[in-house]
Amino acid sequence: MNIVKATAKYEAWLSQHLHLLDPDLALKHTQMRSAPFPFLRATFYRWAQVWGEICPEEVKAPRVLGVGDLHVENFGTWRDIEGRLIWGINDFDEAWRIPYTMDLVRLSTSALMANMACEAKTGIAAVLKGYGEALEAGGRPFALAEHHAALRIMATARLHEPEKYWEKLRALPKVKAEPPAGAQKAIARLMPERGLQWRVMHRIAGLGSLGRERFVAIADWHGGSIAREAKALAPSACFWAAEGKGTAPILYQKILDTAIRCRDPFVHFQKRWIVRRLAPDCSRIELSAMPKERDEIRLLYAMGWETANVHLGSIAARALAADLKKRPSNWLLKAARAMEKSVMADFKAQGK
């Protein structure tokens, strides 16, 4: 099955689980053709479909409740219940029971394709070192106030001009139709008090989830703006790749509940909607938004560590460490290169 047919089949399956927005889906297709890295981000369903054939040894690894659609721009910051700034993985739309190696290979492949400045072998080694040392430590979240000074500087570079963030949100177009009742109820549940009046806007964001309904509610509260976003979810593309039809549970809340992390109290899954607080200090971080002096090796090390934080919610560290020990020293770079080649072939085949 080629990439064009796979895309059509996946979107047909997805349309059975949620309402797809045709203009946003068309934009996604345009972005997929723009460059290899956006293509990678937009096509996790294809990755789930082919990676087992390309990386047969990695498929045999122990299974964890994993991220699935992991890449270098699937990280961000949020505030925990103590108000501390936390850094980590912030999107679990495709959470599923997968070999732990899938997350590591996809993260590493994305690093290769994101045109990061560091040498490939060194960068991939940093991912693996971070993952392995997190296993040894039993995991630990990234609270940025007291620790991780370099990462804190990288992660907070975009926080210096919060006015621009709110200007951008307020400039979003208002939705033309009433949002689904489920989305409105989910948003209301995460507002700071009952009875608030809010404006519902249409937001285009992400790539893998582009085409799904996404509503942003903006309200004025105690002298400033607040925002909540509700995004429609479907079962993981991993299920589609394995079964081709049918439905399955959405595991977003489960992975939040089990991972080693300082949870965001303003992220909640309700039926088929994931709702979160939007704010300058609570959003995904794009590599382009980081300062030019970012330390990529340090960043990739942290990403590897955070991946282990998630995996350790569903499996003992010793099981993962034992499997890692058996693998050849170059296994991750080799697998990432193989998947990079596959992604590039699909990217070039889109127009055929």
Characterization of the model:
This protein has 352 residues and is of the alpha+beta class. It has helices spanning 3-14, 22-32, 36-42, 44-54, 56-59, 100-113, 120-137, 149-155, 162-170, 181-190, 237-243, 252-258, 296-311, 317-326, 331-349; strands at 63-66, 75-79, 85-89, 96-99, 142-143, 199-202, 214-221, 224-232, 267-270, 273-278. Helix 6 (100-113) crosses helix 15. It starts with a helix and ends with a helix. The relative contact order is 0.22.
Keywords, please?
single chain, alpha+beta, 15 helices, 14% strand, 352 residues, 10 strands
Uncertain residue segments: none
- The largest sheet has its strands arranged as 6-7-8-10-9
Order of helices and strands: HHHHHEEEEHHEHHHEEEHHEEHHH
Give the biggest beta sheet. 5 strands, antiparallel
